[in-house]
Amino acid sequence: MNFTRWSARLPRTQRRIAARADRGARRPKPAAAAGGGSVPAARGESADPAGRGEPPAAAPSDAAPPAAVPTLDGLSAHDLLGQVPALVAVVYGPEHRIAYLNDTYVGLFGSRTPGTPAGQALPELRELGLLPLMDQVLRSGKPRTVKSRRVPAGGPATTPGPRQEGAAPGPGRSRHGYYTFTCSPIEMTAPKAIAPAQAADDRAAEADLDGTPVDGTPVDGSPVDGSPVVGSIREGVVRKAVAVPDAVATETVAADTGPATEPVRGVLVFGADVTDQVESAERLRASERLQREAAVTLQRSLLPQGLEQPDDLRVAATYQPGGTDAAVGGDWYDVITLGAGRTALVIGDVMGRGVRAAAVMGQLRTAVRAYARLDLPPHEVLQLLDGLAAEIDPHQIATCVYAVHDPNENRLVYASAGHLPILVRDPDGTVRRASEPTGPPLGTGGWLHTTGSVPLGPGASAVLYTDGLVERRDKDIYDGVAALERVFAGATGSPQVMCDRLIRALGITAEHDDDVAVLVLQHPARTGHDAELFHNAALELLGGVEAAPRARAFASGVLASWRFPMELRDLGVLAASELVANSLQHGTPPMRLRLRRTDRRLIIEVTDGDEHLPRRRRAEPVDEAGRGISIVATIASSWGSRRTPGGGKAVWCEFALPAG
C-alpha cells in the first residue's frame, strides 16, 4: 500500500476544487473537424451498410450525455481511514513513531501525541504482541496477521504504565472484545521543509475557520517536530480565510510541491473487530463440549460399571473416548458368566458417533446379555443380534465378537460379525490370530454367521479390541493388527497392566481421533495351593437304572475327598442323584456325570444325547414325577441347561462354597 498518491496538498474543499481545475486544464480538446474521425459515430454520422445513398439518421436531440465516472483523486488518507469502522494506526521509522490514529482507535484507546514512539505511547500494541510483528513487517516488507487478540473491557484503563503527556484517555469497551490485526508495510513521502512562520500561519488559518487546530497541534509559533509524515500533512495547508481562485489554487499547489526526499517506510496497523464471530465460535464450542460430555456420560453409564470375574479367568478391560475434537463412538465390551464355569466375552463397535451411536450401543449390549442367558451357541446369538440391530435403526450397522470360554474344553469358541480377529498368545509367547471366517456386520440382515474355536489352555492369554486401537488414517488396518501382535507378544503382567501397555505402545493418547475399547483375558496356570482349589472328576453313566446308585456313590466319595462340609456333601449328592435320574428317564446315551470345584463354587453337570431341555414346573400332589428339577433349583445357588455342540444337552447346578 502506497500513500504517495494520497499526499495532502490543500485542505478540504479547496483541495478538491484545485484538483478538478488542474485536470480540466490538462485534458485535451476533442477535434471539431467534420471528417476528423475515422469512426462514423465520432463524426456524428451513421454507416450505410446497404450502400443505397440514404442520408444518415439524425441523433435524437434529447439523448442524455454520458455520466461522469467518480474518481478518488480528491480523497485523502485522512478521509479514507477516518471513516473505516476499524482500528487504524500508521507508524513510521524503526521506532514506530506515531503518524496517524483514526477516530475508532482514539475512541477505544485514547488520543496520542504524533511523533512519539509506539513503545511508549501505545502500550496496548505491546500488550497485544504487535510490536515484534511490526518489526518483522518493517524488515521483510511483507504483511503479517494475528487473529482474535483479546482487548479487555475498559480499554486503556487496564493497561499498566504511565500515560504519555498530552494523551487523552478513550472511553474503552464496556465488555471484552476481540480483534484481528493486520500489519502491512507502507511508504510515505517525506515533504520538503517549510518555514516555521509559514506553518504557524497555515495552522492559524485552519483554526480561524473551524475553531479547532489541525491534527491536534497547538496553534502557536512553535516549530513542528520534524517528523516526515507530520510534515507532509502540514505543508499543504492553505489559509481558508482567503478566497483563492481555481487558477491561483492550481499554481499554489504546483509551487508548494517541491522535490520529495526518500520515501519513509512505515507500518499500517489495521484491527478488525471480530468479537461477534469469536463469541459465536465459543458458544458453538461450548455446545459441542456439552453434547460430547453428555455422550461420554451416556457411553460410560451403559458400559459395565464393574466386570464380572469368572473363577477360571482373569479379565480386565479399558475404554478411552476419542479426543476433544472427536465425537464419542459406540464401542462397548462385556463379560457375562454363563454358569457351570463358562464365561461369555463380548466386544463391539457401533458405526457412527455421538449420542445416537451410544444409545444403539446400549440397546445392543442389553440384548447381548439377555441372549447370553439363553446359553445359545455364539453364532445363534449373533443371528438374533443381527435382526435386532436392523429393527433398532435400519441405517446403523455394528461389528461384534461373541466368544465363550469353557474351562472343561480349554477352548475359546467364538463368532464374529465383521469384527477384527481375536489375538491369542500361547504360554511360549507365540501369538495367533483367530482366522476363522467372519460374517457380515450386524444390521445387514439375511446372512448366516458361523462359529469357530481357538485353543486357550492354562497360561494362555487373549485380547479383544476395537478398530480405534489399530486403525490409522495413513496405514492399512492390518498393519496395525500386526503391530498389536508384536506388542502383545511381549506384554506381561496382570490383565489391567497389559491393557495399559497395549494402549501406550500403540500411541493412544487423550487426543486420539477415535474411541478405543480393549478386553484382555488370561487363563492362569495354577500351581501349589491354588491348584488344590481346582479339581475335576467325571463318571460315564453306563447301563440302566443301576447307574443311579453308582452316581450317588461316586459323588459322595469325590466330595468327601475334597473335604467339603457334611451339609454341602449331602446337598451335592442329592443334586447329583436328581440330575442323573432325570437324564436316565428323559435322555439318551451317552451320559456323563461331571463334578468340578473352584475356589468359590461346586459345579455338578450331567450330559446326555437328547436335545430337549428340561423345564421347571409345578408338580400336582398326585404326580409321581416332575419334582427333580424343582428340588435342584431349591437347594442349589443356580441351575441351568444348554444344548451341546455335538448334539444333546447339559443340565447343571452350582453351590456357593462357604467363605474361608
Strand order of the largest sheet: 2-1-5-4-3
Averaged pLDDT: 78
**Quick one: biggest sheet?**
5 strands, antiparallel
Strand-residue proportion: 15-25%
Structural class: alpha+beta
Low-confidence stretches: 1-13, 30-47, 156-166, 193-226, 229-257
Q: In whole angstroms, how far apart are the ends?
A: 89 Å
Helix content range of the residues, please?
Answer: 25-40%
Please tell me how large the radius of gyration is. Answer: 46 Å
How would you describe the shape? Answer: elongated
Q: Count of helices? A: 18
Number of strands: 20
Protein name: PPM-type phosphatase domain-containing protein
Region (Disordered): 1-70, 141-176, 196-230
Biased composition (Basic residues): 141-150
Biased composition (Low complexity): 39-70, 152-162
